[in-house]
Amino acid sequence: MVKEKVVVLNEHGIHTRPATAFVTLAGQFDSEIFITYQGKRVNAKSILGLLVLAIEPGAEIEIETDGSDEKEALEELIELVNNKFGTE
Fold first, then answer.
1. What one-character-per-residue DSSP string does 14-69 give?
2. pLDDT digits (tens, 9 = 90+) for 32-82
3. Alpha carbon distance 20, 71 (integer Å)
4. CA-CA distance, 69 to 62, in Å (whole number)?
5. Among 2, 3, 9, 15, the one annotated catalytic
6. pTM of the model
7. Could you give the strand order of the β-sheet that contains 40-43, starting from the edge strand earlier in sequence?
8. Is 15 a catalytic residue?
């Protein structure tokens, strides 16, 4: 298991479009993937779970991956967040 904190940089936080991008990328990996925000931990392969967190711009989230491709998954998901989910 590996995990890392990252700040959501895009202007509107994690709304439908960025959540879809995150879930789509997360679904490409065999590892289990979770996001923790304000003490709530959800499966990051669930768009509903991600949207329920209502992650705001500038928020710090923790991405956790666990499985055979955990390091690659974590790196690519952090890159997605740092690149503002490709929405800006």
1. S-HHHHHHHHHHHTTSSSEEEEEETTEEEETT-HHHHHHT-PPTT-EEEEEEESTT
2. 999 999 999 999 999 999 999 999 999 999 999 999 999 999 999 999 999
3. 21
4. 18
5. 15
6. 0.94
7. 2-7, 60-66, 32-37, 40-43
8. yes
User: CA-to-CA distance for 48 and 6, rounded, in angstroms?
Assistant: 21
What span, in angstroms and rounded, lies between the C-alpha atoms of 70 and 65?
Answer: 5
Q: What torsion do the CA atoms of 24, 9, 55, 35 make, to the nearest 10 degrees?
A: 50
Rounded distance, CA 43 to CA 28, Å?
A: 14
- Provide φ and ψ at 86, rounded to 5°: 70, 20
> Do 57 and 81 touch, CB atoms closer than 8 A?
no
Residue 30: pLDDT over 80:
yes
Read off the tokens for 46: 């669930």
